[in-house]
Amino acid sequence: LMQADVRLALCEPFEMHDGVSHVGMNILLQTAEGSLIDDVNVQTIALQVVASCVCPDSAADHLLYVSGHDRSVRCGESYTIQLPRVWTCVRNHQGIRVLVQLIQKRTPTIGVDSLRALACMALSG
Question: What whole-number distance in Å separates Cα of residue 54 and Cα of residue 15?
Answer without folding.
Answer: 24
